[in-house]
Structures are given as C-alpha cells and as structure tokens.
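Here is one chain, start to finish.
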Amino acid sequence: MRLLSLFALTLFSGHALAADPVVVRVNTFPNARALPFFVGMEKGYFNKQGIKLELEFTENSGSQRAGLAAAKFEIVHSAVDNAVAMADVANVDIVIVMGGDSGTNEFVVQSNIKTFADIRGKSVVVDATNTAYALQAKKILLKNGLKDGVDYKLNPVGNGTFRFKAMMESKDNAAAVMNVPYSVLAVEQGMKSLGRTVNMLGPYQAGGSYVLRSWAKANPETVERYIAGYIESLRWVVNRKNRAEAVAMLVDKQKLSKSLAERSYDLMVEPSFGYATDAKFNMAGFKNVLTLRHEVEGGTLYPTERYIDLSYYGRALKRLAH
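Its structure:
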C-alpha cells in the first residue's frame, strides 16, 4: 500500500510539473483592441491552455520590432505590415501565425481641414514612417493628389497616445490614421474623420500576431496553446452579452470614460471593421498589405507564403473543438 501511495504521489507530481504554465511574453500597443488580453488573463483562458501571459505595451513599432528580433519577448500583436518590414528590410526570419482585426482605422483630421487638399503644406502624424498605417496614410493622400515629402511631411511620434497628443498640441499636425479609442476621443475633442481606411483602400489585414520562426519551430505546442487561449478570449469579447462587463474592463484597465469605452467596444465588434471572427487571417486583406507596401515603398513583391504559417492556428482551432 505504501509503495502504491508513493507511486501515486510521484505520478501526481509528474502531472503537476507537466501542467506548470509556460511563460509567454507578449508585446502589443496600448489601445482598446488589447481587450482580449485583459479578458484572457482575468477569465483564465490563457491559464486554461497552460500559458502564463506576461503582457507589455510598446511606445512605437520600431522598438517593438527591435525587441522581437532581440528575443525580449516571444509574441507580437500589431499591424502585420511590421512583420513584412522585419522580413524584407531587416532580414529577420519572422512568421505570422494568426490574424486579428481590420484595424478600426480612420483618417482623422483637425477641425479646420475640410478636404484632403487642405493638408498640403502641413504634417501627417504617424507611428513610424515606413510601416503599418503610415503606408495607408501615404496611399490615401497619393490618391488625392498629395505626395509625401513634397506636399506634406510625416511626423513620426509613436503609438496612438502620442499621435493624439501631437494633434491636440498643434494644428500643424493636420492628420493621422487613428484607431480606437483615439479616433473616438479625437472626434469628442472636435476633430473629425474623413472616412474609414478600409472604405478607401479595400480589405486590409491590419492587426495580427507574429513570432520568430525559429521560436515557433522550437515551441509549436506553446504557439498553438497561446492561439487557442487568445481565440477563446476573443470569443468572450465579441459576445455582446458581455458588453457591459467588457466596457467596465476598458474603463478599469485603459482608464477610459464609460461613453468612450462603449463607443470603442461597439466599433471593435463591428464586422469587417474590428475584430475578425476567431482572429481569422484575411488573405485578401494581406495581399492588399503587400501590394500597398510595394506601391508606396518599392522593393520586391514576394508571395504571401514568405510571411505566414497558419498551421499553428489550424491546430489551435482543433484543440478548442476537442
């Protein structure tokens, strides 16, 4: 009996050790679309998958890309155009493993700007000049007869917090591509939107998740479990039965007013504008990302397979189904 008890204790201890959560460091932007992370940690969805999530926010996409390349964190959530830049410009072997959202991006301008032509001679505030939503701004302005460096200048200041702040401080900062909650807050402060970027440019794979390919290959189950935890968190978020609790979480975690949190939530769960169902990757939207980057920045237009591996995502969905 004593031997049996010792065996049972050893077996139990082995399972306990095997079940110890894996620490995964995630870096993303401090905006309302970070809601699934807060939900996942508070509701235990990541822990359920054996993941201990350590979340940190970035000031700008440049430091985020550098941090991933230096393995300061394992997973990034941001505009996947940043992943493309890492591969094509910095020659870092990344892989996009999941979609996320369409960006909830709007072209926000100062109250005195009536048309795109009024931006001539002024500044457009961006995160970084050569990635993500700066390219959307360049393309939109080019379609309206304005060329970067000739008709306007780019003012790279960092994430949405800093872009909003720059526009509040100077009307010479005439425009910026903004997403929630900053697009909503800007309108509350008297600015206005000239339209949604998806309406101006077509479907767009904006936010997504990417990692170093070497890390993914070495830790496939961790990647799958993380994706499963994120998807389950996202399912909770987009379920409108949870709206009141989700809004309260945005108020608490992001220090938003209730009205701002409510408007941000409603935009984020709007189909084709906010979160994609189960963070599904939008292949047509990603092809637009690559085409846009090629048109605006030049360089080689590589096939989509260079950047993505959705096999981890597929296995994560099967894990959830079982």
